[in-house]
Structure formats: C-alpha cells, structure tokens
Amino acid sequence: MKKIALAMLFAGVSLMAADGKALAGKCAACHGASFEKPALGKSAIVKGQSAGAIEASLKAYKAGKQNKAGMGALMKGQVASMSDADIKALASYIAGIK
Question: Torsions phi, psi of 26, nearest 5?
Fold first, then answer.
C-alpha cells in the first residue's frame, strides 16, 4: 500500500512540474516564438542568453527591481503569477532554443 501511495504522490508531483515550453507561449507575442526579437522593439534579444541570466532577470522583474528599457511594469505583470519553479523551467527552455 505504501508503494502505491508513493507512486501516486510522485506521479502527481511530476504532473505539476513547470513546463517551460507551455509558459513560453505567453512570451512569444513580444519576444517571438524563438525569442529572437527585441520585445516591442525595445528590449535585448533573449535568445542566446544563459538560463541563469534569464532566471535572474525574470526574478528581478517579478520583485520590481528591474526596469530595462522601461519594461519593468509590463514584465512584472507577466511574471507575477509564476513560481520560482516556473521561472526556472522557462529560463531553461529559452536557453535551450537553438
């Protein structure tokens, strides 16, 4: 019985894991599907940045501590509902785009 309960718990946690690709969908309108565009013609291109740099930037936007190219308020709203796991998954996904 314990093994079944543990297996079900593990499966549930796996299903709740953040999906970077799914999270990236809401970013594509401004950054492009491959993150190859400067958002609204203002920001730096995200494609090619490391996962660590992207994660740090997203966390800074979420905390309201970053306002690159005047995008602070917009980006804060975009990442406000993301958990740290979501941000990490999104950053890893973006950094892996070739």
Answer: -75, -10
Q: Which two tokens stand for residue 4?
A: 């079944």
The 8 Å CB, 24+ separation contacts for 43-51 are: 43/68, 43/69, 43/71, 44/68, 44/69, 46/94, 47/94, 47/97, 49/94, 49/95, 50/95, 51/88, 51/91, 51/92, 51/94, 51/95, 51/96
Check residue 18 and report its DSSP letter. -
Average pLDDT by stretches of 10, the chain with 98 residues: 49 60 94 95 95 98 95 96 97 96
Q: Which residues are CB-neighbours of 26 under 8 A, at least 6 positions away?
A: 78
